[in-house]
Automatic annotation (TrEMBL):
Record's subcellular location: Plastid, Chloroplast stroma
Chain intervals with Pro residues compositional bias: 413-423
Organism expressing this protein natively: Trapa natans (Water chestnut)
Major localization class: plastid
Secretion signal, residue range per the UniProt entry: none
InterPro entries: Alpha-glucan_binding_chloro
Any single biological process term in GO: starch metabolic process
Protein name: Inactive purple acid phosphatase-like protein
GO molecular function: starch binding
Keywords: Chloroplast, Plastid, Transit peptide
Amino acid sequence: MATRLLDFPTPVLRGSELESGRAGRRGGGQGHVKLGHTWVSCCCPDPVVPARRTRSSEKPDDTWRFDLQKIVPASQRVRVRATPSMPFSSPQSPFVPKQEKFFRRCTQRNFVPQSRDTPPKRDTGIANEKDWGINLLNEHVNESGTNDDGSTWYRESGENLGENGYRCRWTRMGGRSHDDSSEWKETWWEKSDWNGYKELGVEKSGRNAEGDSWWETWNEVLFQDEWSNLARIERSAQKQAKSGSENAGWYEKWWEKYDAKGWTEKGAHKYGRLNEQSWWEKWGEHYDGRGSVLKWTDKWAETEIGTKWGDKWEEKFFAGIGSRQGETWHVSPSDNRWSRTWGEEHFGNGKVHKYGKSTTGESWDIVVDEETYYEAEPHYGWADVVGDSTQLLSIQPLERPPGFFPNLDFGSIPPPPRSPPPDDSPDSTTM
């Protein structure tokens, strides 16, 4: 099945409802990690918790709903024609697997790199390392070739060394069609040093004859926090795609951070455009490992004629006590504005204070008997990320000479770079 470059639900205004997709999440796994010469075990519980969405935040998070006919006078209403979500049009799918497109005639010795490069998909979060299939070559190679159909390919690998036992092993590969209208590149790397720092990463990009282009990078890092001395694992991903035939494209940045005491931070920034409509989304989650949690989401969109709308909410809880608040808003091309704000105060005794108001005169202020529900711990935490990072943890640093002690002066020595610098691996291309 051909992969769509813009395979995502466009947040368009359909009648009185603004719809938006959301990403799923994975869990599972547990274990311990060796940092330097020390084994660090997971010391945070990993309970089975309910679904992430709370009843109180379900409405503002899952759907952006507001009835324009009820909240905006007829004289101020604006009709916005929805643009359906669609892939980039092409008479022939530009995303034929690279094995067929570039390498239909491989040698029996399989010297030709078999790329799995395809455009990234939206709202898929941060992939696990096993989904990438990173397999670095042990020997240094520099080879290239031309296939019978005129397409070319290349593969290179190497190793760069630095101070304090720093080592970066990398492999780069790519290919292009005979007329240079299509091209793909992919780079893998792993890094380590004598302080226990380890990194695994991928960068890939491509373009096709229709002018569509894409770029994606992913990495995960293990290191020792300089303040707490706890082991930490951080994962991140960036994805981007652009259309060559219309004004359309999207960009996403995702990150996750974990430490061995249960501290967790997750977030994402997203942007998309399809012809006359643009939209943005930001969200974050923070768990301190002791029961305190902060979550927030901010989404907004606009059209070229000047219509704007959005929704945001935030929740803070600790020991059953906390608050939620949010706002939904809309601006017409004539600058007529509407908004509704709402809030909840949870006292931890079964009582909840709910209040809110809107620019059309709505208001409420009540106290109700209601159970307080929230997630005090992430459903995917330290034990899960350790279990899903076996390749990262298995990276072997250079053998340390007898009598050598690594420099642990965190205040003066910066950590190794988080992405491959130009002298570590071949230059990468961003769209």
